[in-house]
Each structure stands twice: as structure tokens, then as C-alpha cells.
């Protein structure tokens, strides 16, 4: 028996490795929070109170306060729609060990209808106790802000395969057109549902553990507005492979209707 792979099998093996690197890494439910390392590749520390709407979720994802009792996150961070008291949201602190942090349990998960692992990567988590003292992050309801420079933030890995961060990190990344992004990802990119961002040369990006967190920018009045939800990418911060984010404007009406149905 020959030990090496036939050429077609090599192709299959290479494709399998490539797919594995195309990281939709599903966070393990209720993983405990590691307490060291920075987050967001190429990022710097966010100041306490700089992004009051940022939420850390116990399954190892990010999120944003949409209303007093609803957190907008990624569908791939949660299970199916229904009552759910298994998630803990940490709010009000850039340092996950801050004694002043506030931790609130979930009571319901609403995952985007039709979510099947490709596109539609959004979900709402309802909290047991409302958060009244922190600013919320409004979502973009048109494509007007799907351009320019975006801010990304999270407690995820600071390099591929790296540990999660104790401190909230932030970075800026430029918009990448569907055309250019499609050159990298081909049919994996759902252009109408996803928006890409990153530098041609790489170096700055969201990474594992940042999923579900917001990508945002300033609106015409200088207020923060959410344009994306961290979703996926090929590795992290690689040249030629931008980060892929849920295009919030595409789902704004659905998110609004879902929020209303959840009493949020
Ligand atoms: N899917 C990842 C997560 O669950 C986010 C990956 C973002 N990757 C990227 N290259 N921008 O945390």
C-alpha cells in the first residue's frame, strides 16, 4: 500500500485544511474566561467608558447593547430560538476582572430565521435585568454608512490561535467593497448580507472571540452607529483576506421587528 495520497486526495486534504482555516469557529458553550492576553489583532486598549455598549458573552463572543434588555450578537454564537438562561452577559467594564463589572443572565435567545451557517449571522439575546445606565448602540437602517473607516472592538484573540483578552481592545479598519472581498472569498461571500473590512496588507482584524461584537462608525451627527456584526474570515489579519461582518442595514427591519416581539 502506498502511503502518500493520490493527487486528487491531496486536493481534498488541502481543501479540508483550507476549510478548517476558514474559521467559523463555534465558541464552546459556557467556556470559562481566560484572563490574559490582548484582543483584536493589531488593536490597542479601549478606555473605560469609551464604548459603553460593548458586551462580553459567556460562550466567548462579543455583543452590543441594542436596548436596555437586548444584546445584538452573531447567530453562530447562540443556539436556536427559545427560552435560554445559560448565557451570562458582562457589561460596564473594559476589564473582565473589574470588580465593578455587571453580570446579567439571559432569559431568551432569538436567532435569525433561516440561519444555516451561511449569511444571516445575527441574533438577539434578552437579559433578565435591564441595563439602564449604559449607552446603547443604534443600528444602521440604510446603506448610507456602509463605507469609510470602521471601529472594531472585542475581547477576542490578538493573533490566530492566541488566547482571549482580559481587556477590551479596539482598532480601525477600512471598508472593502464586495468586488474586492469576493475576489478573496468567492461564493463564500454573501454580498447582500455581508460587509467586509480590513487593510490590503492585513495586520489589523477581528479574530476568534470577537464574533458577535459590533463594527461601527460615526453617523452624520457624530454619534456611533452599528454597521456590522463580527462574523468570519480566513484566519485573522492575513493580507488579502478581509474580515467579514454581517451587514446590519440589510437586516435592520428584521432586527427591529424581532426586538419589538421580544419586548425590547
Ligand atoms: N468567527 C470568529 C468568532 O467566532 C470571528 C472571526 C473573525 N475573523 C476575522 N478574520 N475577522 O469569534
Overview of the structural elements:
The protein has 264 residues and is an alpha+beta fold. The protein has a single domain (44-262), classed as Trypsin-like serine proteases (Thrombin, subunit H, Beta Barrel), CATH 2.40.10. Helices cover 14% and strands 28% of the residues. The protein contains three helices and 14 strands. The protein has helices at 7-21, 178-185, 248-261, and strands spanning 44-45, 54-57, 61-67, 70-73, 82-83, 88-91, 102-111, 123-127, 149-154, 169-176, 194-197, 214-218, 224-232, 243-247. The strands form two sheets. The chain has a six-stranded antiparallel beta barrel. Strands 2-3-4-8-7-6 form a six-stranded antiparallel barrel. A hairpin with a 5-residue loop joins strand 12 and strand 13. It is globular. The N and C termini lie far apart (63 Å). The model is unreliable at 1-39 (pLDDT under 50). The chain binds arginine (ARG). Arginine binds next to strand 13.
Amino acid at each position: 500500500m502506498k502511503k502518500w495520497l493520490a493527487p486528487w486526495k491531496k486536493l481534498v486534504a488541502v481543501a479540508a485544511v483550507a476549510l478548517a482555516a476558514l474559521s467559523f469557529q463555534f465558541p464552546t458553550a459556557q467556556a470559562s474566561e481566560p484572563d490574559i492576553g490582548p484582543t483584536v489583532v493589531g488593536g490597542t486598549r479601549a478606555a473605560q467608558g469609551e464604548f459603553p455598549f460593548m458586551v462580553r458573552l459567556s460562550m466567548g463572543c462579543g455583543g452590543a447593547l441594542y436596548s436596555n434588555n437586548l444584546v445584538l450578537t452573531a447567530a453562530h454564537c447562540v443556539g436556536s430560538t427559545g427560552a435560554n438562561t445559560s448565557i451570562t452577559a458582562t457589561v460596564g467594564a473594559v476589564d473582565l476582572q473589574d470588580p465593578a463589572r455587571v453580570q446579567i443572565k439571559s432569559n431568551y435567545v432569538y436567532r435569525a430565521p433561516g440561519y444555516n451557517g451561511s449569511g444571516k449571522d445575527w441574533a438577539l439575546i434578552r437579559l433578565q435585568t435591564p441595563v439602564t445606565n449604559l449607552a446603547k448602540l443604534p443600528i444602521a437602517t440604510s446603506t448610507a454608512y456602509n463605507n469609510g473607516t470602521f471601529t472594531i472592538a472585542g475581547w477576542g484573540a490578538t493573533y490566530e490561535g492566541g488566547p482571549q483578552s482580559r481587556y477590551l481592545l479596539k482598532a480601525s479598519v477600512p471598508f472593502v467593497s464586495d468586488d474586492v472581498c469576493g475576489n478573496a472569498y468567492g461564493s463564500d461571500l454573501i454580498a447582500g448580507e455581508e460587509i467586509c473590512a480590513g487593510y490590503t496588507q492585513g495586520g489589523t482584524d477581528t479574530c476568534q472571540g470577537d464574533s458577535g461584537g459590533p463594527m461601527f462608525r460615526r453617523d452624520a451627527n457624530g454619534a456611533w452607529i452599528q454597521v456590522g456584526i463580527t462574523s468570519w474570515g480566513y484566519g485573522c489579519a492575513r493580507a488579502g483576506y478581509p474580515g467579514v461582518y454581517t451587514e446590519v442595514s440589510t437586516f435592520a427591519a428584521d432586527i427591529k421587528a424581532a426586538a419589538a416581539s421580544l419586548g425590547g
